[in-house]
UniProtKB/TrEMBL annotation, chains A, B:
It holds the Pfam family GshA. The keyword Transmembrane helix does not apply. Its EC number is 6.3.2.2. The lineage of its organism: Bacteria, Pseudomonadati, Pseudomonadota, Betaproteobacteria, Burkholderiales. It comes from the Bacteria. It comes from Undibacterium nitidum. InterPro entries: GshA, GshA_N. This is Glutamate--cysteine ligase. The keyword Ligase applies. Keywords: Ligase. Gene3D superfamilies: Glutamate-cysteine ligase, N-terminal domain (3.40.50.11280). One of its GO terms (molecular function) is glutamate-cysteine ligase activity.
Amino acid sequence: MVPHLATAFNGPLLEFEKKILEATPSIERWFRLEWQEHTPPFYCSVDMRNSGFKLAPVDTNLFPGGFNHLSSEVLPLAVQASMAAIEKYCPDARNLLLIPEGNPCNMTYWQNIARQMQIYRQTGLNVRLGSLDENLKTATTIVLPDGSDLVLEPLQRSANGRRLGLKNFDPCTILLNNDLSQSIPSILEEIHEQTLLPPLHAGWAMRRKTNHFDCYDEVVKKFSKMVEIDPWMLNPFHAKCTDVNFDEGTGLDALMATVDTILAKIRKKYKEYGIKEKPFVIVKADAGTCGMGIMTVRDSREVRDLNAKQKNKMTVVKDGRAVRDFIVQEGVYTFEQIGESVAEPVVYMIDRYVVGGFYRVHQDRGVDENLNAPGMEFVPLAFAQQHAVPDMRAKPGTAAPNRFYMYGVVARLALLAASLELEKTDPHPEIY
Amino acid sequence: MVPHLATAFNGPLLEFEKKILEATPSIERWFRLEWQEHTPPFYCSVDMRNSGFKLAPVDTNLFPGGFNHLSSEVLPLAVQASMAAIEKYCPDARNLLLIPEGNPCNMTYWQNIARQMQIYRQTGLNVRLGSLDENLKTATTIVLPDGSDLVLEPLQRSANGRRLGLKNFDPCTILLNNDLSQSIPSILEEIHEQTLLPPLHAGWAMRRKTNHFDCYDEVVKKFSKMVEIDPWMLNPFHAKCTDVNFDEGTGLDALMATVDTILAKIRKKYKEYGIKEKPFVIVKADAGTCGMGIMTVRDSREVRDLNAKQKNKMTVVKDGRAVRDFIVQEGVYTFEQIGESVAEPVVYMIDRYVVGGFYRVHQDRGVDENLNAPGMEFVPLAFAQQHAVPDMRAKPGTAAPNRFYMYGVVARLALLAASLELEKTDPHPEIY
């Protein structure tokens, strides 16, 4: 199933789909050569928005949850991709230590962890869970809704302090599914004998969205030249705004000016393409996740006129961290609809392979709003269905695998941007 | 769906399935390390037989046809695996030249070629077909039953004679789907600037089944030690017999003696395990394919008492070549049944990945006969179904993905044997 594109103005995207399909050999070759130069992160999910005139990643997650929302048909693909990844990092691997997020009450998150463990186990690894929660002193069992369970164990450094593991468990590879929002726990520091994936500077303690989208600019510029399209079709404008304090009202003028600049740029592009929609921007914390610290802005005055609750929402995000730096990003409408609900595609990758995806659907949200919010639902992408590879002869916009291939290409552009970003922001490039 | 195992005596195999599942991390790690040392062939299919007390490969095909019999759900897996393969051989590749078999009347074969082209195209390659038929002077179109078509083009060497291609098509990689039964065509010789996959000595002009099974002996010995099983459970006894001429009646005494030796060995094993079935062997051409030149033998006198038609069948195989060398292989019953028909699994691999498989089913053949014969049908293996990765908690023998994982392990043992075989039989090891 391809969600209905709820806009008459989808010509540009259908044409783009056609171009992408026709250019498949060049595109795949281009990616192959890029992956000779750059190492993809172990895994990644990309939130995208499809407005019919534009298809763009809006968020690139280096600690993807939500594996439980992928259809089980794609599991063999995920297993195969993680086999390729493990072979690269540590062919000799027996044991994988997975470090999840700390919230033990979010069952959906633990279902994601269970699904990931299933994938890595099938890859041929012994997988156990280590907790960053210092209060967790003994192995703790979490019972999942289906009756199965997970065991969270306290992390410990080896006797000589050089290795990280669990009791009677010495991993070769440590996989973080914890985005380190607040800071880098000292127990994760100074690990030189084991492979830590992704590296610590991929966590939100150090990562910045603006760095990512700066790299994405570079990637899209190169890609667009090859397939001969306007890079704007794949790339939302963005700019960085620092030292903004909503509570104290400082830095707001600069933020308003940035919002105005981006809105003006969008307006110009809309005019060029004859797009009648109203431009908007998204203001979000430059570091952070989980759909917090995000607002939709149609007029720069809105950032000045927030009420107390809204101010608080923009000031404090996950784990209580104060936010001062923001990214102002061109808002991309999502005109994909499943039934009456707005939908946005989320694509999952392991190593350099697209392994699946789903639509995030929200029936109470508008086409210009963040859908990553309570009340969202998930519909697996029609990936493993009959004739699951693209059909060159299908009419643009009608074949699910064609649409999905296009999504997979754009998601991989974001993945490549993440690779560049991790290279450029590496505090210790010599040992990377 | 798991085919019914039509034998009460399936304890050994169910226990083996359990062992294999439990040993998954060791097995996958073992394969990972083996693939660091040995390069798998580009692709491979393995015919297997499951007798309930034994699961063994009986034929390892390095020029697999039958891709059209794989379920379309596994296509993304095949695409991903061939991406990994191409990246290894020629990341810079744009063009792939595929050289098919010569028989233009076998529509099923061409459907296989169409399916393969679909896979490699999706990998991101321009794919065209070059014919070894010297009578084919211009591009020739083959119309498939679904109305689509394939174009066969004459092969040509480049002006300087160093490269092989088609008119206006210079490939980086040349993929043979032609098993070179008769001899190696001169147009394929002296290709040093392009990657020829698989190498020429993988063709039946040079390849010998006994070499393959000698290597398989080695592989299984190592593997069985690791998982602590009797290697015989995975490995049919075999021996080579040369200079046999059924027409002239020469070499038959030696053949009978070999048959007796193998039958005696099987009898001993059957006794050890309390198996009541009647031992049998398969006598087949040491070089050759397509189910020709094969006979089931329960008593060595049968090889002496052939009638004229049977003698002819054993003397001349595909492409009219005379056969003098034979492999005498322990016969493995196939006790898998779909409905009333005997079934044997065929597993497909690209690079080092299992990408799919099917059951070859024949309603007119017995449990001790070759099923690769006119009248055979194909049932895709239940690979891409719900919960398509193994379930450790399922009762042995009940879960399709568990059975299929076991098949995938044994098929990869044969794949590894093929890698060793190609290394050992390489006439130019220094340039391999």
